[in-house]
Each structure stands twice: as C-alpha cells, then as structure tokens.
Amino acid sequence: MCGIVGYTGHQKAVDVLLDALSSLEYRGYDSSGISIFEGTKIDTIKSLGRLDQLRERIDSQKKVFSGTCGIGHTRWATHGEPSDVNAHPHTTKKLSLVHNGIIENYVQIRQKLQADGYKFVSRTDTETAAHLLDRLYTGDPMGAIRQLCSFLEGSYAFAVLFWDHPGEVYGVCKGCPLIAAKGKEENFLVSDIPAILPYTRDYVLLEEGDLVKITADSILIQDSEGKEKIPNVQQAQWNMEQAQKGGYPHFMLKEIYEQPKALRDTIHPRIVDGLPDFAIEDSIPDGFWRQFDRISIVACGTAWHAGMLGKGLIERLARIPVECEIASEFRYRSPLLDRRTLVILISQSGETADTLAALRLARESGSTTLAVVNVTGSTIAREADYVIHTFAGPEIAVASTKAFSVQLAVMYLIAIKLALAGGRCQPDEARSLIHNLLEAIEATLKVFDLDSAIQKYAQSYVELKDLFFLGRGLDYSLAMEGSLKLKEISYIHCEAYAAGELKHGTISLITPGTPVIALATQDALLSKTLSNVREVISRGAEILLLCKDTFTPESELAGKCILLPALDDLFMPFVGVIALQLLAYHTAVFRDCDVDKPRNLAKSVTVE
Ligand code: AGP
C-alpha cells in the first residue's frame, strides 16, 4: 500500500506534493520521491526514509522547483528493499511513473524487456511497468496506458508524467484506489482522500480500469474501452483522521476488513498452473523444499499462532516433523539444529528482537533459515537465507490481524509445496488444495456479514473479568489467537485450552456463568469437542460456539452459535479468525479501550 499524489494547477507543485504526501505516510513511509515539470524537462528527486529525509535532500541538493505540475509517492516496499534506487518515481527518457499495488507477472515482463536490451536499475515491479510503458508510448498517453494494462496482471494504480505533455498528469487503476479531485484552477490525482482535504472536498472515485487525464482546468475520465465518462463528483465528509482510517473508527477494524485483499495480493503471485510456486516471486528454487527432514518454526505472539497452525498443516500434509516455538524460549534452550533442519521465522515487523536472535542462532548452528515477513528490507528479511514477503500492506494497529491471515496463507502454500516435494501428494491433489485455499480466501468476505451478530455477543462481554477459549487440533491453535486478540485489546483475562485438557485441572475453574468460547469447526473432532462443551455447560458455563453453518446446534446451544461459512476442515481457520478478531474488536470498543494502541504494548517489540 503506497501513497500517490499528482498535481497540476497554479501552486508550486513541490509544496503541494510534499504536503499531500505527508498525509499519506500511513500508507507507506520507507522511501519517497517527486517528479516535477520544470519547463519542458521532468526533474526527479527521491530518498530512502521518511518524507523529512526527502525534504532534507531537496535542501541539501539546493534543488529549486518552480514547476506547477508533478507527481509524488510514499513507498511501502513489496518488491525491492527500501532504498534510493527502489524509491518511486521510476523514470525513463519519455516518462516518470509512480505505482501502488503488485504486478504479479512483473518477472516475466522484465525478462522479456531485458532480452530486448532494456536496462534495469531497481528490483521493483514498478520499474518494469515504467519500461514497458516507455516501449509502448508513441505520443498518445491514454492509448499507451491502455495497452500497458493489457499486459499487466495483478493490482495497480499509476500516476504518470509524459515528457512531451507538460502540465498534464495521467493515471489508471485496477484493484487499487485512485481518486481525481477538483480544485480552483487546479486538479489532483491521489491514492486516498486525506491528500486532498486541505485543498478541496470535491472528488471523483475512479472505477476499475478507468483512465484519467488531469490538467489545471479539466479532468478527463475514460473507461477501459476508451469511452469518455462523466465524472461523478462527490463531497468528502471525513476529517483527516477519519480519512486516514478510510472512514473506519479504528485502524484495527480497517485492517480486519482489508484481509481479503491482503490474502489475494499475497497468494495469487505464488500460484502458477494451479500449484504453489516460490521460484518466481521469491527466488526459492524447487529443489530447496526437498532437503530437510525436520522443521522448526520460531516466532512470537500472533506470529507464533500462525506458526502453530503451520505446524499442524505441514505435519498433516507433508508428514515432516515440525516444532513450533516461542522465540524467547527457543533462543535460550540450546535447540538441536543441524543442516537438515529448516528454521522458519515468522514476523510481521521483521524487527522482533527475540525472533531475530533465534534467526542468528539458527544460522550459527548451520541450519537454513526462511523468513516470512511483512516489512520488506527489515532486519529479519535481510539476515535470513531466504525470505517470503507477505503483501498485507502497513499494519498500523498494535493488534495484528491481516498480517496473521497472510502469514497463515503462506504456511498453507509451504505445507503444500513440501508435500509435493516429498511425494506426499500428487499435483492434482495439490491443485485441489490450492483451489480450496482460493475458495477460503473468497469465503472470508462472508464473515463480515456476521459482524452485527458478533457485536451482540461482544456486548455481553463488557463486564467480564475472565473468559476461556477451548478447541481441538487447528481449533486449539486458533483459540490461542482468539484469546490473545481479546485479552490484548479488551484487557479481559482470557486463556485458551486444548478442549481435551480441561478435565486435567482447569475445569475446576468453571462455575455457573463462566464464559467459554468453544471453537468447533473441525468435523473430524466435532463430537469430541461437543462433549467437552457439554461438560462445561453442565457446570454452568455460558457458551459461545464457533462452528460451520452446516452444523445444527442442539437445543441447549441454540442462539449461542456463530455459524461460519462451511469450508473443508483444513481451511476453516481463515474464516474463524476473522470472527474472533471482530469479537475482540467490538468487545474492546464497548469497554472503551484504546483499540489501536492498547496499554503497555508496542507494535514492534525490538527489545528482549
Ligand atoms: C499481536 O497482536 C501482538 N501485537 C504481538 O503478539 C505480535 O504478534 C508479536 O509481538 C510479534 O510481532 P512480529 O510479528 O512483528 O514479530
């Protein structure tokens, strides 16, 4: 998720671009840049780091920008670590371009362009689009952009300056937002509303495939066929903070709702011919997956829960023994590691001190390390032997939601890849699993229909002090995540227990009225879990059951169920976790907690 701004009008473009970009830094802030028409020349400057570092570079290089038309960008790196050269805009002789989104087939396009002599300086997917557009451009900006789109797969929003069209900014969007905004003798092209609020509230939300050209006094929109569209001008009602949250009351709720897109962005580029593929996107050769006879997954917090689910998947599908450990324990217990052990480190931030220490210990022990991280260029990403980047975009809320789901999805791909490499499943079986994975990703949308029902249960939790989560198998790992989500933002003391373990002591805590959330999404374990549920009900527990919508609850459970879209057992965590996230979120809101910044917590724990 990056920030795009295009401007053309009567003001100095450098002032407007930097100001507008600063309100988009929540969308990406590891590097930034601007391109401005200075006379008939396009002048570009960009910098690693926050926007202030770009300002400092403009000053230190004594760059004087007087032009009134330009584009700017704040980057959230996906392809190519944060650096000056990977920062946008990307320029060619004919154009300057900024991009938000993920071009899923950029490697194939780049290879063809390189074969034709194009030279690349960055490792970004964006530069591929810039060179391809340059090749296609013969004087008609809209026509060239339309042709570019016919070659690209994935999601993108572009803003472009063409060298021989001073004063004009062009754009197109597919799968990423792009907004044209109408000012007084000035117009804007931005990736999100906050950028325009200081200047105007009149905006046009471009639709899928729309192309746009803005000049100081006009906004021209065409559909993907080239037919002109009448701009549907709307009035922005939000203030800046509301706009940065996309109208959601909290970043956490926005990020919960971003999960379907985050999952598609992360998984689609890694499926080729219906099978998991890490060779193209992540440069991990197929032979890599055949060389290990043991796997150790190491992480903290929510990432550890994704690892616990990953353990279950890999052992079930690939039949390889997996340990999944909390990094702060792993690093001090002299773990048994060798060359045949693959150590997988999962981390949203890529900076968690305990996980980083575990990575270093694994490398010292001669094990191969594979990192699954959401922040490109983070320390863990840079130090691991191999890295798989998740494409969830910036996760601002301290409580991790969309990062968990994309970590989980990557664990499914890894489990299927290992099963194929080890001969534990045939390509057709793997294709069927991948089909189920893609179906699960789309099924996540249906969980949002349960939001108001979930709010009712959350309302009943407002005064709680303690709450138990129960589950078996994958549901037990999911119960741990549900418990962490609820306790870290609502401050209710929650514990997750393996449902079969209750009778070994914990059930003594169950008294009349004790709230218990039972996860029963696994058909294979349903009867066992239901017996545990009956055990706690018989001791007076107040149950909330999460199960498939194909399950008919017995009378004593009627009205106490969250019925989830029914999927194959293996894929139920995708829909179960969203229900648990919404439950935790609404409970914390009803308890008037600081949802995005819970007490005592930090987004990235870079200390021991
Ligand atoms: C998750 O909701 C928590 N905020 C926390 O447990 C987090 O998952 C943990 O600190 C690991 O962070 P990382 O994924 O950035 O390594």
Q: How does the major sheet shape up?
A: 8 strands, antiparallel
Strand content: 15-25%
- Straight-line N-to-C gap: 30 Å
The set of bound ligands, ions and cofactors reads: 2-deoxy-2-amino glucitol-6-phosphate
What does this structure look like?
By secondary structure, the chain is an alpha/beta fold. Helices cover 35% and strands 23% of the residues. It is built from 19 helices and 27 strands. Strands 3-2-4-1-10-9-11-15 form an eight-stranded antiparallel β-sheet, covered by helices on one side. A seven-stranded antiparallel β-sheet has the order 5-6-7-8-12-13-14, with helices on one face. Helix 17 (474-490) links the parallel strand 23 and strand 24 (493-498). Helix 10 runs parallel beside helix 14 and helix 17 runs parallel beside helix 19. The protein is globular, with a radius of gyration of 25 Å. It starts with a strand and ends in an 18-residue tail after the last helix. It binds 2-deoxy-2-amino glucitol-6-phosphate (AGP). 2-deoxy-2-amino glucitol-6-phosphate (AGP) binds at residues 300-303, 347-349, 352, 355, 398-400, 488, 604-605.
Summary?
It contains 19 helices and 27 strands. It has 608 residues and is of the alpha/beta class.
Give short descriptive properties of this protein.
608 residues, alpha/beta, Glutamine Phosphoribosylpyrophosphate, subunit 1, domain 1, Rossmann fold, 3 domains, eight-stranded antiparallel β-sheet, seven-stranded antiparallel β-sheet, 23% strand, globular, binds 2-deoxy-2-amino glucitol-6-phosphate
